[in-house]
Amino acid sequence: MTTTATGSVWSDLVGQAGTIETLQQAATGHGMTHAWLFTGPPGSGRSNVALAFAAALQCERGGCGECSACRSVLAGSHPDVHVTRSETSTLYIKEIRGLVQRAALSPAHGRWQVMLIEDADRLGDPDHARGIGNALLKAIEEPTPKTVWLLCAPTVRDVLPTIRSRCRTLTLATPGAADVATFLVRSEGISETVANFAARASQGHIGRARALALNEETRARRREVVSMPARLTSLGSCMTAATNLSELAKEETDAITAEANAAEVAELQTIFGSERKDTTSRAYRAAISDLEKLQKQKAKRRVLDVIDRALMDLVSVYRDAIALAVGAPGQLVNEELRSDVAVLVRAASPETLLRMIDAIFLAREQMLEFNVPPQLALESMMVALRLSGEGR
Ligand SMILES: [Zn+2]
Questions:
Q1: Which burial class, exposed, middle or buried, applies to 315 when counting CB atoms under 10 A from its CB (0-12, 13-18, 19+)?
Q2: Beta bridge partners of 115
Q3: Ligand 1 is an ion; residues with CB less than 5 A from it
């Protein structure tokens, strides 16, 4: 997250006015509590909101965005704000244990000691040591007067019930397209046309909106996905589309993975280096081997995430077609594909379009819940999306 010239720590948070008001009041002592849970869909910016709150708590002026407390929190270098995210670390359990120990201490310099856990949904993973949830629970239940826990997760249900019941929950909204577009224009200095497109196409996912706005390859991959539906007129074209979709997903995953893996290895080297251990030591080799295993799992998971997003892009085309068929007012998500969307409207009735959306969700469930290989699930899905020309 970057701060802008417009000032406060809240100014980069998109479409979260209600939540910000609550947090601003809490930072000035009204309704403050020791454990908070921030939930919201991917891309709604829940960890950015938590970090802004951490800055506001350390700031003498409730989050001015300009003082050294605000700046160091946002830059990740404040000594009394401890951030843990599982995505960038193999040492998650160790980190949480460290947090729990630290939580018992008083803040070193700041007004509060803030413990931010970005992936609180992972605390319940069976592959994590069982004791970890309990240790954390005890720390949250019996907080030292100046310690605050900030947990982030997609939904309340993703967090262990014993932990979430101790937290005050704030649910972030999915930001509207207009808010996202305004933010992109201001923060990235791009044209309104590109910003409007990216905001609509991302459907409220800010990270995705930024990638679509700034990266031509990301735009090209999305364009390829959303132009598939109108071309599914024969069995052969359905099979080709399934293959293309898996390949696009692999391409995008490879691009994300290479960067993330290199960063993780560098991080591990730093950790071993700072503990003055030899990086040829057995401990280091074991850690690298663990990391590589984890990276493989994550790469597999990431392919599914990327396919999942592609499927949601496909759904947006069918939703557009239904909107056009029933004459709903307003812009389409895929406004620039209006002629393609019209092809769908001519080829399929609204009922059929709804069934096609169901077929997409079925493929999603098969892959995510039942581990059906993506290629297989995508092939049957594309066949279900074949246009027979029964519409108007
Ligand atoms: Zn400040």
A1: middle
A2: 82, 149
A3: 59, 64, 67, 70
Q: Which two tokens stand for residue 230?
A: 């109108």
User: Residue 333 C-alpha to ligand 1 middle, in angstroms?
Assistant: 38
- pLDDT for the residue numbered 112: 94
- Compute the distance from residue 73 Cα to the ligand 1 centre, in Å: 10
pTM here is 0.75
Nearest-CA neighbor of 104 among 116, 92, 115, 93? 115
Mean pLDDT by 10 residues, the chain (392 residues): 59 90 92 93 86 96 94 93 69 75 84 90 62 77 90 88 91 91 92 94 90 92 96 96 94 82 77 61 79 78 86 96 94 93 96 97 91 94 88 46
2 Cα to the center of ligand 1, angstroms: 14
Compute the distance between CA of residue 298 and CA of residue 247 in angstroms, rounded to an integer: 18
Of the candidates 144, 159, 83, which has an alpha carbon nearest to the alpha carbon of residue 116? Answer: 83
- Burial class of 167 by CB neighbour count within 10 A (0 to 12, 13 to 18, 19+): buried
Which ranges of the chain does DSSP label H, i.e. alpha helix?
A: 17-27, 46-58, 68-75, 92-103, 131-141, 161-164, 177-188, 192-202, 206-214, 216-226, 235-274, 282-325, 338-347, 350-370, 374-384
**Res 3: pLDDT:** 38
Distance CA 91, CA 264 (A): 11
Do 310 and 350 contact (CB within 8 A), yes or no?
no
8 CA to middle of ligand 1, Å? Answer: 8
